[in-house]
């Protein structure tokens, strides 16, 4: 059984070949850097002595055949195993069209990267005594239209329970695109946060907990965050095409008592060709597009500010989301009305006792 291994996580790379890029003046993510940023990270990882690489979804800009095909070809050149799951941008509708793939195409295209058949989920022994379960949280209505939140269907949940009955004492890692635990205050109940979550997360946790599964990897939210709930730990990794353009390298070590320690280290892409100061440019890009986002956050419950008050406050929060995205945030808006200040402070990196606890980028976890 492996007692020590090293792996990396690259999330939400949103690969967009230059001629496929579609413009949206309101998008926060900078897909223009998707290919050079990925190439730079893969070059850095070439010397990291990895056992494997995880990509928890949103592999492409918007499910384009040629962007998927480019990524499949590129990942196939790597000297270590790679495992993927689909994101909401990878399968935009159940049925394929001329421009974009469908649900049944995903496991076929990514057959070398975890999948063993036609199902869009899988379980693999990736090292001796270490198993990875890749789940599909992208679901569709009866007309093939993608649901607005994550969902695991009954067949997948039954398969998962049956699979976990066979793993014995193996260490099990779970990868799924949508968030299972909350990474923002009240995320599962808030109109802006709940679409990033797995709607039936309680059903999933109810299967994982008795099986002793404790570690989950997700993406989708485009933030750096480590969430803990009871015995569970969920590591969500920010997008490679959004500020601060992070990726993670993790080292798992089993001690003499059989417990696992996970050392988490985060690196940022600082520059790519054409963007010599990517961090500053990207932070400002996000800030320039933040007004409507912050206005909505302020006017929705629980704050529910009047339109005029929200419009007056939103410019003060230009970099609020960028600070959340980079992880380990600390917010002090004492110059704003007390209710607003208290609400925003809750988005700081706080532990259960309300103390500042910066674990989102570099930390040592025990599971």
UniProtKB/TrEMBL annotation:
<dbReference type="InterPro" id="IPR011239">
    <property type="entry name" value="Pesterase_cyn"/>
</dbReference>
<keyword id="KW-0479">Metal-binding</keyword>
<dbReference type="GO" id="GO:0016787">
    <property type="term" value="F:hydrolase activity"/>
</dbReference>
<feature type="domain" description="Calcineurin-like phosphoesterase">
    <location>
        <begin position="5"/>
        <end position="223"/>
    </location>
</feature>
<protein>
    <submittedName>
        <fullName>Metallophosphoesterase</fullName>
    </submittedName>
</protein>
<keyword id="KW-0408">Iron</keyword>
<dbReference type="GO" id="GO:0046872">
    <property type="term" value="F:metal ion binding"/>
</dbReference>
<dbReference type="InterPro" id="IPR050884">
    <property type="entry name" value="CNP_phosphodiesterase-III"/>
</dbReference>
<dbReference type="InterPro" id="IPR004843">
    <property type="entry name" value="Calcineurin-like_PHP"/>
</dbReference>
<keyword id="KW-0378">Hydrolase</keyword>
<comment type="similarity">
    <text>Belongs to the cyclic nucleotide phosphodiesterase class-III family.</text>
</comment>
<dbReference type="Pfam" id="PF00149">
    <property type="entry name" value="Metallophos"/>
</dbReference>
<dbReference type="InterPro" id="IPR029052">
    <property type="entry name" value="Metallo-depent_PP-like"/>
</dbReference>
């Amino acid at each position: 059984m492996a007692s020590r291994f090293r792996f990396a996580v690259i999330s939400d790379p949103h690969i967009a070949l230059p001629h496929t890029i579609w413009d949206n003046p309101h998008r926060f993510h900078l897909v223009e850097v998707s290919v050079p940023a990925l190439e730079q990270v893969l070059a850095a990882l070439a010397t990291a002595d990895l056992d494997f690489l995880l990509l928890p979804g949103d592999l492409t800009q918007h499910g384009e055949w040629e962007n998927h095909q480019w990524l499949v070809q590129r990942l196939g050149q790597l000297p270590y195993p790679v495992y993927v799951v689909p994101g909401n941008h990878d399968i935009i509708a159940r049925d394929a069209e001329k421009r974009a793939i469908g649900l049944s195409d995903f496991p076929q295209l990514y057959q070398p990267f975890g999948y063993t058949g036609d199902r869009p989920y899988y379980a693999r022994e990736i090292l001796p005594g270490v198993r990875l379960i890749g789940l599909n949280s992208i679901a569709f209505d009866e007309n093939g239209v993608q649901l607005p939140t994550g969902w695991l269907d009954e067949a997948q949940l039954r398969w998962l329970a049956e699979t976990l009955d066979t793993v014995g004492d193996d260490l099990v890692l779970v990868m799924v695109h949508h968030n299972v635990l909350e990474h923002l205050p009240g995320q599962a109940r808030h109109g802006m946060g709940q679409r990033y979550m797995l709607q039936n997360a309680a059903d999933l946790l109810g299967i994982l907990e008795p099986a002793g599964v404790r570690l989950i990897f997700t993406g989708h939210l485009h933030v750096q965050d480590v969430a803990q709930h009871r015995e569970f730990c969920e590591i969500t990794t920010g997008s490679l095409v959004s500020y601060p353009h992070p990726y993670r390298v993790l080292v798992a070590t089993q001690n003499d008592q059989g417990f696992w320690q996970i050392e988490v280290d985060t690196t940022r892409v600082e520059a790519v060709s054409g963007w010599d100061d990517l961090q500053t440019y990207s932070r400002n890009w996000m800030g320039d597009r933040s007004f409507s986002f912050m206005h909505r956050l302020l006017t929705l419950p629980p704050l529910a500010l009047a339109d005029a008050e929200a419009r007056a406050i939103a410019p003060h929060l230009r970099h609020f989301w960028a600070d959340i995205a980079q992880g380990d945030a600390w917010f002090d808006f004492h110059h704003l009305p007390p209710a607003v200040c208290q609400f925003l402070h809750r988005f700081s990196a706080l532990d259960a006792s309300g103390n500042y606890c910066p674990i989102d980028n570099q930390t040592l976890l025990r599971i």
